Write the structure tokens for this entry.
Amino acid sequence: MRTVAPLLVLLLASSCAAFRDAQPNRTLAIELSASPGTPSASASAAPSSFATPGPSVSRLALSEYPVGKGQGPHDVAPAADGGVWYTAQRTGELGYLDPKTGATRMIKLGSGSAPHGVIVGPDGNAWVTDGGLNAIVRVDAKTNEITRYQLPDPNVNLNTATFAKNGTLWFTGQSGYYGYLKDGAVTVKQSPRGAGPYGIATCPNGNVYYASLAGSYIGLINLAAVTVVSIDPPTKDQGARRVWCDSRSNVWVSEWNAGKVAVYRTEGGTTAWKEWKLPGSNPMAYAVFVDDQDMVWLSDWGANALVRFDPATETFTAIPLSGADAGIRQLLGRPGEVWGAMSGLDKLLVVRTR
């Protein structure tokens, strides 16, 4: 087994993965600049009242880690031990990256597997939403033992999962479903507007929201009644793709069709929407993630860039990626780190914000 420590440079570096020989990427120096956001017009739009501007991003540190060729990494989840789990959608595997060495190990999930999402549960193990198997898959972080929780027919096209505060796992199915796993039993429900349920997240206040890409709404799940309240962003047919909550349980939404980022503000007992168009001629906001400093991160397929949005100053900063059509599918993180999976380049990336 060969491992190579990652080269951490001013802005871009990479490492090679164990069990597969790979050469480190060349290093690039990129100067970053901030662009003001353009708020959309809506009756509920309000001036920014988010606390303080984030730290300077003029010279962020970004590192890339190659994984196996043809794996098509889709989602990532920082592990409890400092590593990073990722779904290899095209090869039916769950991968684990050691960022210190660049080494990876792979776990086969079974014949027909096509894993989409992965998260780390309260038990410290990896939980996978596997669309190919139509099952929730638990992978023991220490033994790699696999436990499969099969969904009933039809195949719901499993997308993403989140754990509620009480330990119940909630999931979305893009064919028009949502549901939950509790005490080893799976319950599946039809979504209120048919196909589309995509990203899902749990807020600090315990609320669980999902985004509907085809339905262009966000859904607030009533955890007790197992029903959904549909909430429409101001822009029609905007294509809400993923959601994430900030520290005050405001809900941030990546709007794929509209090329915008939106916030559904729930703090202070009031709710109001505001949207901002991402910079560039053809923005396509795929993933959204809010870091531990309440900075909002997006993957922009139109600009082939990772984008940071500062809510306090309402400015965007775009970080170009190392190759064309990188295809960052999802973002997640831990304090001081934002992780993503580049499905088009077979790489993982991390931005270290401290």
The domain at 12-352 is CATH 2.130.10.10 (Methylamine Dehydrogenase; Chain H). Confidence is low (pLDDT under 50) at residues 1-31, 41-47. DSSP finds no helices and 31 strands in the chain. The chain has one domain: 12-352.
